[in-house]
Design brief:
The chain has 157 residues and is of the alpha+beta class. It has helices spanning 2-15, 42-56, 124-155, and strands at 35-37, 67-82, 88-103, 107-119.
Length: 157
C-alpha cells in the first residue's frame, strides 16, 4: 500500500512540473545569475557573501551583462557602557562595506555602513555568542543596503 501511494505521489509531482531546486539543468547545475560575488575574508565576510548572494539572486533591473561584485569589509567592536566595576554592559558592532561592481561595460563603486548593538551577558561564552549574533545581523543588513544601493544606481534614482 505504501509503495502504491509513493508511486502515485511521484507521478503527480512529475506531472505538475516540479523540479528540485538543486537539480541539474541540461546536465549541469544552474549558475547564480549575472552577479558573481567574490569571496570575502573571515567569518563575517562569508556571512556577508551569502547574504549578498541571496539578496541579488532575483537580479538587478537594467543589468544585462555578467559582473563581479567585490566587497572590502571592515568591522569593529566597541564597548559602550561600563558598569561600576569596569565590565562592559553594552557593546556595538560597526561594519562598513566598500564595494566595486565591475563588468565589461559596467563599473560602479559604493560604500555602506551599519551598526548593531547588544547587551553584554555576564558569562564569557554568552558574550561570544552575542558578538557572533550581532555580526550576523549586521551582515544581513549590510547586504540588503548594498543590494538596494546597486539597484538604485542602476535605475538612476
Amino acid at each position: 500500500m505504501k509503495f502504491v501511494l509513493t508511486a502515485l505521489l511521484l507521478v503527480f509531482t512529475a506531472a505538475c512540473g516540479f523540479q528540485p531546486v538543486y537539480a541539474p539543468v541540461n546536465g549541469k547545475y544552474a549558475e547564480g545569475g549575472l552577479i558573481e560575488v567574490a569571496a570575502i575574508d573571515g567569518r563575517q565576510g562569508h556571512m556577508l557573501r551569502r547574504a549578498l548572494q541571496q539578496e541579488l539572486a532575483i537580479g538587478v533591473p537594467g543589468l544585462t551583462e555578467k559582473v563581479t561584485l567585490t566587497v572590502n569589509l571592515d568591522s569593529n567592536l566597541s564597548r559602550l557602557a561600563l558598569q561600576p566595576d569596569g565590565a562592559a554592559s553594552r557593546s556595538s558592532m560597526l561594519a562598513t562595506g566598500v564595494y566595486r561592481l565591475e563588468g565589461e561595460n559596467t563599473s560602479m563603486t559604493g560604500r555602506s555602513s551599519v551598526e548593531t548593538g547588544f547587551l553584554v551577558p555576564d558569562s564569557p561564552y554568552g558574550d561570544i555568542a552575542a558578538q557572533t549574533n550581532a555580526g550576523d545581523r549586521a551582515m544581513r543588513v549590510l547586504a540588503k543596503q548594498i543590494a538596494d544601493d546597486i539597484r538604485l544606481k542602476f535605475t538612476g534614482a
